[in-house]
Each structure stands twice: as C-alpha cells, then as structure tokens.
Amino acid sequence: MLFYLNISNKRYIFEVYHSYNKMESNNVQSNEVIKFPKSKDYLLLKDIGQGGTGNTKLLYDETINENFVCKKYSPFYPEDKALYYNNFVDEIKILYKINHINIVRVFNYYLYPKSMTGYIIMEYIDGVDIENYISSNSDSINDIFIQTVEGFRYLEEKGILHRDIRPANILVSNDGCVKIIDFGFGKNINSFKDYKKSITLNWAYSLPDEFEKSIYDFRTEVYFIGKLFEQIIKRNNLIFTFKYFDLLSNMINVDYNSRIPSFFKVSRDITTNDSLDVAFSEYENKTYLDLANSFTETCVKMQYSTIYIKDFDEIKRKLEDLYQNSMLEKFIQNNSHFVSCFIEPPYRYKKTSNVPVSVIKEFLRSIDTLSSNKKKIILNNLWQRFDNINREIVDNLPF
Asked: Do β-strands 299-303 and 390-392 pair in parallel, antiparallel, or remain unpaired?
C-alpha cells in the first residue's frame, strides 16, 4: 500500500496495490482477507494548519464534488514520531465509533506502521472555531451551548474522554452547527487504565481541584466546557444574553464533589430550564401522566447502574412494537417488555401490575405532533420519576 503526494501538480494520489486480482464469491474462504485494488486522487486546495503531531490539508474529490480534510501524522519534532504514533491510531479507533451531528465524521484512513505515519480523511467543516463564531453571532450563544453539551453528552455515553478542550477543537459551521474535532488525546474510559497518571496537557483555564490528585474524568470535562463558555461570555459581554448562568456556575465549581457530575445531568438541567415557557394541552398532560404512573406502579426497583434510554425515537419504536403485539389485549402481557421501553436492565418489576394497552395507544397518538422541545421535556419528566424509584446494589437482579 503506497501513498504518493505530488505537490507540483497539487494532487494527493492514494494508490493501493495488491496481488489479489480475482475475487469470486464462491471461491472466498470465511477467514480470507479481501483486498481491493484501487487508486484515488484528491485535488490539493490548501494547507489548513500544522499542529504538534501533524498537519492538515484541504482536499477536493472531483468524482463526488466534495471537500475533505486530510490529517497527516507528522510530529513537529521528528524524534516524537514513535512516541505519539499510538495516539494517532487511537484517534482513528475513537472516530470510527462516533456518529453524531455535533462531532466530526471520519471517512477513511491509511496507516503505515513501518514509517510511523498515517492519514485520516475527515469531514470538511466550512466555518470557524467556537470563540470566533460567537464573537460574530452573539445571539447564538445559548444554541451553541446546547449543541456543545449534546456533543459531549454523546461522547460520555460512548465512554470517550476528549482531554483537549479548547476553542480551536470546537468548530462551528457557517450554518451554525457545532462540530467537536481533534481526538488526538482522546481516551476510551473503559481501556484508560492509567488516566489518573496521564494528565500532561497545558490547559488554558484555571485547574479544578481534582488535578492535585491526578484525576481526569467526565466531571472534569464538564468543568472545562464550563470554563470555555465562561471565557467566551466574558470576552463578548454576553452576561445578559446567556440564560444558563446558574447551571454554568455549577459546572465550573472547582470542588470536584460539589460540581455537576455529568453532561447527561447538564442536558437535563437545560431542559428543565427551557420547560418553564412551554405549555402542554390537557390531553398531552393526561397521556403523559397515565404512562408515567403505569411505569412507576410497575417498576419497583433499579440498581445504581441501571441506564435510562435517552433517545426519544428509540422509546417510541419500542412502544409501537409493544402496542402492535398487544393491541388485541386489554392489558400488556409482559410487564418487563413495557419497562424495557424506557430503561435497560437491571431492574425489578411487578408481574401482577395491569398496564392498560389503551395507555400506550393514547400516548403514542399524543406525541405524533409534539415539538422536539416538548419531547425533551417529557423525557426529562420521566427521568425525574425514575430518579425517585428505589435503588439497590444486587449482583443478579431478576428482569
């Protein structure tokens, strides 16, 4: 596999040569490696920038009429090549796990371990960093804050720490879409065995208390996002424009134990704040209450590890399936199937609780025309109900 860069012709040419020339489905073995001979040209448009571990260029694909960013692993100091190569590979692994509107997409990669280098082909974001964007679009501060929180909430759900939070790594496209970039220092929390010992970055903001104990987790990332927005708000005099100051002050609390614990909680608090100006009809309110009451009467206990389903559309799909399988009945036949529409095991439930099928039917009917904001409020209210259900620590709960 070879990569050719022809600067004089301003073309990147990716060429892959393999000895495998014949691929017929009936001859392929189950463990055989399939290799596709190919050649791919990109027109080099411009240099984007040089960082500590590589440089990026803007490329153009003439076939599909799209721009892409190519990030090459090439440390500023050649002696650092071997030192940070694994970080570059980790960044590729992280990006391939991610699919969220507020996080940069990766389309392809090319690795050359013998040469300790490689390339990532990524989404091109036509925009500027978050600080410059808000300076020119001050009325968008609240929307940009919400989008940023949602992007980091998704990373939190995936167990991914970014670990390099600064304005240059949060871009905003010209149409106002936040894009989190640069996962060169990112870590998967599940495999991050030495995360308490590896805080070596230079941060632009005052440090939280946990740095003294070499602790860095999602609560720390909440702090740095809070500090980033505090800085932007002060520099642009947006004190009277930003509407989440109480939440922000909780995010930037230097005391680890007093700080808001997660982006999930930050997102919930945003929804609670925004719900003050939203009115529900009597029918909408009744269908919600019937559903919520049915849930709390059926689900009696959870573990502290029980996870709430956070995607409203996923909950809706599950309820639709449940209704389709129960529509000829008066009551839901399997209460565990009802509970699992909203939370993941482990949990305890009442087998004898009668959940009317009509409750599911009316709730599904009522949410068909709801705005996205109202759906968020319904979810947030459901989670408040879930928070009040008894918790227990038991290794093997029956589902």
From this structure: parallel
Longest Cα–Cα distance in the chain: 76
Task: Give the angle subtended at the CA of 196 by the CAs of 189 and 188, to the nearest 5°.
Answer: 15
Cα torsion at 8, 14, 19, 22 (round to 10°)? -120
| Euclidean distance between CA atoms 39 and 63, whole angstroms | 12
Q: Which two tokens stand for residue 147?
A: 């989008």
Q: Read off the DSSP letter of residue 241.
A: T
d(Cα 131, Cα 149) in Å, to the nearest integer?
15
Measured CA distances, 176 to 63, 155, 373 (Å): 28, 20, 19
Give the residue ranges of DSSP H helices in the chain: 81-96, 130-136, 141-157, 218-235, 245-251, 263-274, 282-298, 312-324, 335-339, 357-367, 372-387
What is the layout of strands, in order, in the sheet containing 299-303?
347-349, 299-303, 390-392
CB of 266 closer than 8 Å to CB of 160:
no
Q: Summarize pLDDT for 371-399 with one digit per residue, the tens.
A: 988 999 999 999 999 999 998 765 554 44
In the chain, what percentage of residues exceed pLDDT 90?
A: 57
- Structure pTM? 0.77
161 three-state secondary structure: strand
Residues 6+ apart with CB under 8 A from 399: 336, 340, 345, 346, 347, 349
Residue 66, SS3 per DSSP = strand
Residue 366 contacts residue 284 (beta carbons within 8 Å): yes
Q: How many CB atoms lie within 10 A of CB 353?
A: 18
